[in-house]
Design a protein that fits this description.
Layout (H helix, E strand, L loop, with lengths): L1 E14 L3 H4 L3 E11 L2 H6 L8 H11 L4 E2 L2 H16 L3 E8 L8 E8 L8
Parallel strand pairs: 1-3
Antiparallel strand pairs: 1-2, 2-4, 4-5
């Protein structure tokens, strides 16, 4: 299996435990890892058989519009679920970095989720 990585995509989302913290979008860095077989995409030189990282990036940049989260843990899980649902990788890892503690470079949460083995409901 192959890995597509978007490293430290800068987004601005309303996030924080308190209402005051969520009142203004905050700078976050997202690192996305998508486990996906790119064999056919590479052999045919055709994006159709891969995952379009530009599309994923644009989707994540727009995700925070009219939404807010209290915890970066919830945000990371929401992003992982969205990526599995919309882009169908075999596995996804999402790291969210937040800059809320002045004495620390950042705080971060990283989650990893796999495609469900169960058939999808219709």
């Amino acid at each position: 299996m192959d890995l597509i990585t978007i490293s430290e995509l800068e987004v601005a989302y309303c996030i924080g435990v308190t209402e005051e913290e969520r009142a203004t979008p905050q700078r976050l860095l997202l690192t996305i890892e998508l486990l996906h077989d790119i064999t056919i995409a590479a052999s045919r030189d055709d994006l159709w058989y891969s995952i379009d990282y530009q599309h994923v990036s644009n989707r994540l940049l727009a995700l925070g519009e009219k939404r807010s989260w209290k915890l970066i843990e919830r945000l990371a899980v929401d992003i992982a679920d969205l990526l599995l649902r919309e882009y169908k990788p075999a596995e996804v890892a999402v790291e969210v970095k937040k800059f809320s503690i002045p004495q620390a470079r950042h705080v971060a949460v990283k989650v990893r989720r796999m495609k469900s083995a169960a058939p999808e409901r219709r």
